[in-house]
Design a protein that fits this description.
The protein has 450 residues and is an all-alpha fold. The chain contains 25 helices and three strands. Helix 1 packs antiparallel against helix 2 and helix 15 runs parallel beside helix 20 (300-321). It is elongated and about 85 Å long.
Amino acid sequence: YCATMDLVTKIIGLSGKDDKKDLMRYLGSQEQRLMKLKEQDLHQLLAHLSPAEHTFGYIRIMWALARESNMKDLNVFTNLASGLFTEGNPNALKDEKRRVYEIAREFAKISVMTNPKSGILPLHYAIQKICRSTPNLLTPLHTGYLLLCILSKCYDSALTHVEVTKYEIEPRSTGMKVKDYLTYHYYAGKIYCVMKKYEEALEHFQAILTAPTEAGLSAVPCISAVQVEAYKKHVLVSLIRHGKVVTLPKQVTSLPVMHKCKDVAGTAYENVRSCFTKSVEELKKKVEGDKETFVKDENWGLVKQVVSVITKQKIQKLNKTYATLSFADIVKLSNLKDEKEAESRIADMIEDGDISAVISIKDRMVTFSEPAKEDEMELAMKLKAKIQEAFLLSSKLREVDCKLQTNQVFVKKNMSLSRGKESFDQGYPGAPMTEEDQLRRVLEKSKTDQ
């Protein structure tokens, strides 16, 4: 214990300086020493430091603790990590984000096993502090955060971050892996399914299915288990939202990948798709036969909604055709069991905004009406927000394109391909160019394009 007190003294002394160079240099020199310390020794070091005042030092020690292969006191670790995320200096957390992400991975992993709900708020604070100037950046923190929200059924909390579009990914600075990207979109899709925001759920499942895969152009591509699960939900949610399986954009979709997902998913989901346009009775018979598969995949709730959609569509057609109908007529025209089921269905659809109607319990009648038009001011505000988002995304794409065009690796490959094409077209080798000439040409082209 006494042998490690010099670490505490030095960290506290250097943390008080405005210039952090000496502190960072010292922490770098002590990294191997920290990695060799035992769990209890690291706990004692952290007990003498404040996550708010000595954030840099606190992060380095927590990082060493997170890499402990046989951690014994999990509760102590989660409490210490919670303090770091909640009280830590935002600038320090951002500067040391790669280490913070490793700490957060371990924190989320332990929270899943112990108390998922307790981990939500600390990770929320960590995301806010690290991504305060880059809200559209996707990080490993988001994936762990959404998983804890799902396990705790805190879906509204998840929407705080999910509703902000994530179109920035920086693997080098964030440590993002392909698995993080796929699972983030899968969790986001599941959350939107629970909230019955099916269009948004489809967008996230589509992001998974159109993600590049290893050997994606080969006859037998290598696909992720997450992609298979996303495919299953994509089929069901498409039927619920659009009454058919939505076709993905062919420009970014690999047919071998989709065929592989379909094969691995099994016949149960293909049966639902093929029977959807047939009678309700036939669809019910098919899904009951495959119920064990759907329950195992945790998709039974979505399957039941698919079955109910057929009846819902029939009632919606009645809304467009008739002004008034009795419950008896609705039962006959919609193939429902009895008037009680018809009343329940109509009431649910009115509450969900699927139809506009008034129920008369006394007369056993339903009066349909035209759906209320959306307020023009509210519609204009939504349109303005979408336009601003489109402009922001367009600006980001130009920025990424500019970086790509000035990337030396990209330039080398691009110019190599160009010279090869010129040689083929003209029948003689293209003149060699220096890297400086290549970069200058690309920059000139970039300026011309802009």
